[in-house]
Amino acid sequence: MGTYQEFLESKITLAPKTGLQISQDKLHPILKPHQRDIVQWACKGGCRAIFASFGLGKTMIQLETLRLLHHYSDGTRAVLIVCPLGVKHEFVRDGLKLGITPIRYITSTDEMDAGTVFYITNYERIRRGQIDASQFLAVTFDEASILRSLDTDTTQTILETFQQVPFRFVCTATPSPNRYLELINYAEYLGIMDRGQALTRFFERDSTTAGNLTLYAKREREFWLWMSSWACFITKPSDLGYDDAGYDLPELTVVPHLISFERAVSVDRKTGQSTFVPDSSKSLTDAAKEKRESMPHRIEKMAELVFNDPHNHWLIWHHLEDERKTIQHRLGTTCKSVWGSQNMDQREEFLTGFAEGRYPILSTKPEIAGSGVNLQYHCHKAVFVGIDYKFNDFVQAVHRIFRFGQERPCEVHVIYTDAETEIYKTLMQKWQQHRTLQSEMTDIIRRFGLNSDLYQQELKRELFTGRKVAEGVGWTLINNDCVAEWETFSDDSLDLIVTSIPFGNHYEYSENYNCFGHNETNEKFFEQMDFLVPHLYRTLKPGRIAAIHVKDRIRYSYMNGTGFTSIDPFSDETTACFRKHGFHLLTRITVDTDVVQENNQTYRLGWSEACKDMTKMGAGLPEYVLVFRKAPTSSDNAYADVPVTHSKEQYSRGRWQLDAHAHWKTSGERLVSEEALRRLDLRDVLKLWKALEATERYDYHRHVAICEALDRIKKLPSTFMAVPPQANHPDIWDDITRMRTLNSEQVKKGNGKHICPLQLDIIERLIERYSNPGELVADPFGGIMSVPYQALKMKRRALATELTTAYWQDGIKHVRGLEVSQSALSIFDLIETGDAL
């Protein structure tokens, strides 16, 4: 199994190298220095992303990478380039410079022949399933960001189809750094990391908005280092230490043109308020209406710009087919248009002709010609006849003329209406954010180059150092890795262990690799637990208890590949882990949770979806306390070496019967009237329900009827259960106060989503049941120190470890606050009895 230190260092996951080591002398001499470095890096990696800015030679880099991999591997299988329409001629042109000929365009793999090595196709052929990926040794997706414009299922199909190709590359000049799903989809396709693992490791998910991701602040540096181990972000040659001569971008001027025109009065149906200038950012309907009504005014402004400067070439970007027709009519035959259903040869002729300067004006959509094509040699002026929120399409279109090789200052004219002001502001803000994040990514390349071994050394600094200890009367709280700390504890020294273990790799509680939540899989999590559990067993006194709080794990559809959500039996895996190391399972206490609250966080038990197909639906997940026992020294009577005793006056026969007896509920008849419910507020409804549950036999149909009645009178909450099931069985605890925890301060600090505080009610019962006053209660995952807090409150001693310094510090405040309050109470007790005198 290796040492614990070796295990921790194995968590530093960077991209694997699955390619070929190619020496510099094997590269084509025509390549420029930065291109040579990237080609060597890509060949060695085998599956990599090349995010190089416009004009840095991505076409040449891709061709040379494919040539070398084909020549120095088996040399028998073909290679494939997938690119947008209108770009293939650039690959053919650069291929000739490298001596690669022919590069054959195919619409289906049925067209392949035995003598050709290089093939090229477009994304539409892939989407239609006309390309058999198994025919190829290597494939490169040029302008791969185009995948985001396809529907999710199509993109997923494309990526899955090509994952069997040994060498895979994705290339684009403008990956959106803040579109995290796009980036981790690339990582999954390239075989770097499973998407589910990447989501868990790096991102905080918004429980109120499905799919909304926020990069953990504490994981941000690691995320970009990990990205840079498989994705090369480069904006100019100097990012890799080379001279930028010949790679100076021209001056860029963005000229906004605000259009106003007379409109009919618009009346908001909801508010009844009227306005002369609608806000088209409010809805798609408003935006579409504004586009239609403003089209003549916008196109007239475009025509004014073009006619006032007839000696320059113009690139016209539009979004609507009606706009294209009107532009064509307004500008006449000097304007060539490219559109979706156009004959492919005609489209190719117009794009190539405009790029070569034979046609002075080109009109097209960003999604058609905004990616890949180089149009800078004869054109330095562009007009956006309209705008929308699609930043990537916008910036790609701008860079058709604003790129290395452009020798004249560029002008980009943006025409929008007074109803689209907010859309324009948002577009400019996204552009600025893109520049900022791109700068952060290239900083890593400038510092470390393309040497991932340096990334490895840098990330080793994330291993925990700096042990700290805080102590008081009867308590010790340690800021350290629990494994390292528990190794130092004496055998048979602890009376009770109560803890809530991390739920596998569900959350990361600390930025350190020592964190148990910082594991790629559940299997890796339990591998780390294998270093801890033997010490828990060793340090616990014979016959005593380890009470472990757990919950089963939701396995989302993207994790299990089934299209529906399932459950990982995490509690069973925890049981297996503890039993493997000598513990005996005594019981499993069930703690009910609120299914409505759970659905609001996970979106897996939706009422609407349940009505469509009940077979997709499971049930709410309870929490469990797994009670493990270390065998006593003597098996004669199975008493612990130091028993936990209660007097019969303290522990009544009645309480014993409830603790020992399993109670089954049976049917009854009584219903609660809707009118009675109407007169009550929700607190009274819950009181009435609990009273009925306590005095009546359970009736499922009555329970449903009450819920339905509350719904009819608009009193059934959508965020929590108004009348949750009640239980009499002592091992099903339905009266836990969910908010009675110590994490209010963490919620205020924004950390509440990252911790799962064990409720004080549960801790109290476990300490009462399984320990004697004055004994030592320990918690290896102390968190904000709920267990030590409750142990001290119940006259026990407390010991806990916690890796996250901030949680440890907050826990100290809780424990010290309790210590002060208990000292004050002791003084008052003495005063009352007269002993203080």
TrEMBL record:
Keyword Cell division: no
Biological process according to GO: DNA repair; methylation; replication fork processing
Domain of life where this protein originates: Bacteria
Alphabetized InterPro entries for the sequence: DNA_methylase_N4/N6, Helicase_ATP-bd, P-loop_NTPase, SAM-dependent_MTases_sf, SNF2-like_sf, SNF2_N
GO terms of molecular function: ATP binding; DNA binding; hydrolase activity; N-methyltransferase activity
UniProt domain Helicase ATP-binding: residue ranges: 27-205
Record's keyword terms, sorted: Hydrolase, Methyltransferase, Transferase
Gene3D superfamilies with a match to the protein in the record: P-loop containing nucleotide triphosphate hydrolases, Tandem AAA-ATPase domain, Vaccinia Virus protein VP39
Name of the molecule in the record: DNA methylase N-4
Source organism (scientific name): Fibrisoma montanum
